[in-house]
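hey so u asked for the seq, here:
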Amino acid sequence: MNDSFDVDRWRDDLESKRAEKDDFFADHPQSPIPPEERDSFDGLDYFEPNPTYRVTAIARVSDDPDVVLMDTTAGREMRYRRTATLEFDLSRADGDLEDGTFELGAYRQESPNEQPLFVPFRDKTTGQQSYQGGRYMELESEKALEDGDEIVVDFNLAYSPFCAYSNTFDCPLPPEENWLEVAIPAGERHEK
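ran it, structure tokens below
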């Protein structure tokens, strides 16, 4: 994190986004919460905000992105391009550095429209404290990402896909290259 990072403002922004998402899930016609369950919905469950899990990653960008076929929860395959590989270090809250550097693939569907980077992942909380199908992040860069650029990866913004709430959705599953061998207790929780 850089010196200009304002933790209090970050925490307030994060809590505001979470409240906005809870309102959407409770009331919006496109909510993934089945209509018959919305009256009893009292908000999503989250890990406590933790700036330790807001990291700066170095992007390795390919001029010719590899095709990655992701299995989905409905047994189909979705075609993505690995736009970048993000390398980052994690320091636990107790100050101990986790083992080495971690990597996550960042993807885009083949589309003429520029989309945020899609970063699906699994970690050691998957299937226990978070959704069994993994979680997602969407990352935006202020400019076209180039090899060696830095990009903020905030795991506090990790969320469960809509298929965690209803079988009517078909969601891509994180490819094995995005299975982290570490617990990321940040972002949305989902215990069943």
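The longest strand covers residues 54-71. DSSP finds one helix and eight strands in the chain.
lmk if thats what u needed
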